[in-house]
Amino acid sequence: MEISDSRIDGGKSFDWGKTSVDYARFRDIYPEEFYRKIINRGLCVKGQNVLDVGTGTGVLPRNMYAYGAKWTGTDISENQIKQAKLLSNGKDIAYYTVATEDIHFQDESFDVITACQCFFYFDHEKTSLNFFRMLKPGGRILVLYMAWLPHEDKIAKASEELILKYSPTWSGAGETMHPILIPDCYREKFEIVYQEEYPLKVHFTRETWNGRIKACRGVGASLTEEEISRWEQEHTKLLSETAPAEFDILHYGAIAELKAIK
Questions:
Q1: Which one, 12, 18, 113, 194, has least CB within 10 Å?
Q2: What is the pLDDT of residues 150-162, one digit of tens each?
Q3: Cα 158-209-56 angle, rounded to 5 deg
Q4: Exposed/middle/buried for residue 171 (C-beta within 10 Å: 0-12, 13-18, 19+)
Q5: Among residues 18, 27, 6, which one has the least CA distance to residue 223?
Q6: For residues 21 and 33, what is the distance between their CA atoms, to the nearest angstrom?
Q7: Is 215 left (phi over 0), alpha (psi -120 to 50) or beta?
Q8: How confident is the model over 194-250, as pLDDT tens digits?
Q9: What is the DSSP string of 188-216?
Q10: For 181, which DSSP code?
Q11: Does an H or E element contain 93, and which?
């Protein structure tokens, strides 16, 4: 599904379905510490019913399935959900293709609602009320994010500059470590009970880093096939000349936990 939002990439349209195969292959990259932060908060564990909105290829439900929670995943992209189902074969995870603003599960259905790498896409005036409705008393929204740090990592900076060459309005550039912004509308029904930002090193090969960048919004989700081909030729050459065969990319992780006030 093609999306256009004036807040994102200067309004340039993008479609995660275009890059679902690469997304499935190259974006399951969160290190163990990322998941441990969630478990340490006592969230997404056995006995809890969890809704993962903007689930993409189901990275969060698949990787946290062993902790025992009952997972449901939703995403606006049919292709992303298709990949999520394929990758979750054998796991009891329910997936649905639906925009987050249009989710209509029953009142007080979930203990936790997670939003990983997707929170800033939402129409928060709608989702804040809908999340509150679907959460049990005292239920949690858990907002999660991870991004590379181009000002501190030379390889990440070089790759980012090449994205901007092809997608000059891409608004994902220039990340720095900062708290997740929680819009004021959530404060009417929720209280922020925890926030943290922390550095992470994520390991890549040239192939997997190329795949990770290709599967980002500024490349695979928005460029034409011809543009992607030219970008990939340049990026592969760049990595062969500047990056070792394997390397770590400096990222940061961020978490925000909101409690429903009922």
A1: 194
A2: 999 999 999 999 9
A3: 115
A4: middle
A5: 18
A6: 26
A7: alpha
A8: 999 999 999 999 999 999 999 999 999 999 999 999 999 999 999 999 999 999 999
A9: GTEEEEEEEEEEEEEEEEHHHHHHHHHTS
A10: P
A11: none
Residue 49: CB atoms within 10 A of its CB come to: 16
Q: Find out whether 131 and 137 touch, Cβ atoms under 8 Å.
A: no
Taking CB atoms within 8 Å and a gap of at least 24, the contacts of 240-246 are 240/206, 242/154, 242/155, 242/158, 243/155, 243/206, 243/209, 245/205, 245/206, 246/203, 246/204, 246/205
H/E stretch holding 165: helix 154-166
Length of the chain in residues, anyone? 262
Q: 106: which DSSP letter?
A: P
Name residue, tokens 């708290």: 179
In this prediction, residue 262 carries a pLDDT of 87
- Radius of gyration (C-alpha) of the chain in whole angstroms: 18
81 closest CA partner among 102, 99, 104 = 99
**CA distances in angstroms from 223 to 4, 21, 24, 39, 218, listed in the order given:** 14, 15, 18, 37, 7
Which two three-digit tokens encode residue 183? 């819009």
